[in-house]
Write a structure and sequence with these properties.
By secondary structure, the protein is α+β, with helices and mostly antiparallel strands. The chain has 14 helices and 13 strands. The protein folds into three domains: about 110 residues, Trigger factor ribosome-binding domain (Alpha-Beta Plaits), CATH 3.30.70; about 100 residues, Chitinase A, domain 3, CATH 3.10.50.40; about 160 residues, Trigger factor, domain 2, CATH 1.10.3120.10.
C-alpha cells in the first residue's frame, strides 16, 4: 500500500491511496460472505449462492461497496496518523480504479485544522476596571435579607395604604356585561405591585375593611385578551382584610438571628467583604475576556465551514438539553417563537466562529510557548469532578480512559495559557 498527501487549498488536503490487489481481493471475499445473505439467486436458498453465481447475475460490482468500506476502515485512520493530518470533517472520496485482481486506487479530500498566524499576544495593552462596593450596595443587601424575615400583620384601624396586602372580592363588567375571568373571591393583592390593570390598585387606596366600591379602569390596548383590549371596564370590589409588612428592627439582635455574627457592624462588614470578592472576580473575568479578545483580534485564521457547523451542532445540543430539563422539545420551542431550525442555527453562527477561533489561537500559543501542565494542576481539575461524584481523585481517575485524562490535561494547559496571557498583558487601570 502507498499513500501520498497533497495540500490543495489553505485548509484542505488530498490523500491518494494505492492498495495492493491482494488486499482488495481479500476484502472482496469478506464482502461476498456478507452480501450473499442479502441477495436472492434462483435455485439457491438465501445466503447459500456461490460467489460466481451472484457475480453472473448481478455483476461483481455488487461486492464493491462492502469491500471498499472494509479496506477504507483499515487504511484511512493509520494514514492520517502517519502523515499527522488533523482532520476536521468527513472526507470526500473519489474512486479511480476498483475491481477484482486490480489495485484499489482512490483519493480523499478532507478539511484539516487550519494554520494560525499569531499577531501580538504577549504584552497586549488592556484596560482593567476596578469595581468599588458602595455603602448603598451593602445596605441594599442587608435590606434584602431583612425583607426575608418580614411578617404580615393584620390591620384593623386604618384604610388601605400603598404597600399593604389586601384580600378582596371583585366582579368585572364591560358595558354592564360580566366577562370571562373577571370575577373572583378571596384574592390577594399587594397594593403598588402593578399586577392588576392600571388604575385598579390606586383606586383601592383609602378603602376600609368591609367597604365596597366600583373601580373604573381601561384595559391596555395590547391586552392579551383581544376582546377586552382598550375597553373601559367597571370592577365592583369589596375589601375583606388588610395586612401590612413589618420588618424586624435593624440591630444586633437581627444580625444574631440571621448570621453567625454578634453585631450588626460585623454582619455588614462580612457582606461588604463578600460583595468585594464578587466584584473582584467579576473584574478579573472581564479583564481576562478583554485580553483574549485583543489576542484574537491580532491573529489571523481561515476557519473551515465544517468546524463552524460542528460547533453550532454542539451549542444546539446544549440548548436542547436545557429545554429538555424544562420539559420542552426544540420543535415546540421553534413553533412557539415562530422560528425554524436553519434560522435558529444562524443565531449561533457568530458565537460559534468566535469560539472556534479562540480554541485555535490559544492552541497555537500553547505550542509556540511550549505551555504544559503539572500533574498537580491536572489533579486539581480532576478534584472538582471527583467531589461531585463523591470519590477521591485516585478513585475518580481509575474510572477514566486515557482520552478522558487527556481532556483534563488539555483543560489545565488552557488555564495556564490564559494565565500566561493575562500575566504578560499591559494593564491600564
Amino acid at each position: 500500500m502507498s499513500t501520498t498527501v497533497e495540500k490543495i487549498a489553505g485548509n484542505k488536503v488530498k490523500l491518494s491511496f494505492d492498495i495492493d490487489s491482494v488486499k482488495f481481493d481479500e476484502a472482496m471475499g469478506k464482502a461476498y460472505l456478507k452480501v450473499r445473505k442479502q441477495v436472492t439467486v434462483p435455485g439457491f436458498r438465501k445466503g447459500k449462492a456461490p460467489r460466481k453465481m451472484i457475480e453472473n447475475l448481478y455483476g461483481e460490482s455488487v461486492f464493491y461497496d462492502e469491500a471498499f468500506e472494509l479496506v477504507f476502515d483499515e487504511v484511512y485512520a493509520p494514514a492520517i496518523d502517519e502523515h499527522k493530518v488533523e482532520v476536521v470533517d468527513r472526507p470526500e472520496i473519489e474512486i479511480q480504479e476498483i475491481g477484482a485482481g486490480k489495485n484499489l486506487k482512490f483519493t480523499c479530500e478532507v478539511f484539516v485544522k487550519p494554520d494560525v498566524t499569531l499577531g501580538e499576544y504577549k504584552g497586549v495593552a488592556v484596560k482593567k476596571e476596578t469595581t468599588l462596593v458602595t455603602d448603598a450596595e451593602v445596605d441594599a443587601k442587608v435590606e434584602e435579607e431583612r425583607s426575608k424575615q418580614a411578617t404580615e400583620v393584620s390591620v384593623e384601624d386604618r384604610a388601605v395604604a400603598e404597600g399593604d396586602t389586601v384580600n378582596l372580592d371583585y366582579a368585572g363588567s364591560v358595558d354592564g356585561v360580566a366577562f370571562a375571568g373577571g370575577t373572583a373571591q378571596d384574592q390577594t393583592l399587594k397594593i403598588g405591585s402593578g399586577s392588576f390593570i392600571p388604575g385598579f390598585e390606586e383606586q383601592m387606596v383609602g378603602m376600609h375593611i368591609g367597604e365596597e366600591k366600583d373601580l373604573h379602569v381601561t384595559f391596555p390596548a395590547e391586552y392579551h385578551a383581544e376582546e377586552l383590549a382598550g375597553k373601559d371596564a367597571v370592577f365592583h370590589v369589596k375589601v375583606n382584610s388588610i395586612t401590612e409588612t413589618q420588618l424586624p428592627a435593624l440591630d444586633d439582635d437581627f444580625a444574631k438571628d440571621i448570621s453567625e455574627f454578634d453585631t450588626l457592624a460585623e454582619y455588614k462588614a462580612d457582606i461588604r467583604a463578600k460583595l468585594e470578592a464578587q466584584a473582584a472576580e467579576h473584574d478579573r473575568n472581564n479583564f481576562t475576556n478583554a485580553v483574549i479578545e485583543k489576542v484574537l483580534e491580532n491573529a489571523e485564521v481561515q476557519i473551515p465551514e465544517a468546524m463552524i457547523e460542528r460547533q453550532i451542532d454542539s451549542m444546539m445540543r446544549d440548548f436542547e438539553y436545557r429545554l429538555m430539563g424544562n420539559g420542552l422539545k426544540i420543535e415546540d420551542f421553534l413553533k412557539y417563537t415562530g422560528s425554524d431550525m436553519q434560522a435558529f442555527r444562524e443565531n449561533y453562527r457568530g458565537q460559534a466562529i468566535k469560539s472556534v477561533k479562540a480554541h485555535l489561537v490559544l492552541e497555537a500559543i500553547e505550542k509556540a510557548e511550549a505551555i504544559d501542565a503539572t500533574q498537580e494542576q491536572i489533579d486539581k481539575q480532576l478534584e472538582a469532578f471527583a467531589k461531585q461524584a463523591g470519590k477521591t481523585v485516585e478513585e475518580f481517575k481509575a474510572t477514566l480512559s486515557e482520552s478522558d485524562i487527556d481532556y483534563f490535561k488539555a483543560d489545565a494547559i488552557r488555564d495556564n495559557c490564559v494565565k500566561f496571557l493575562t500575566d504578560n498583558a499591559k494593564v491600564e487601570e
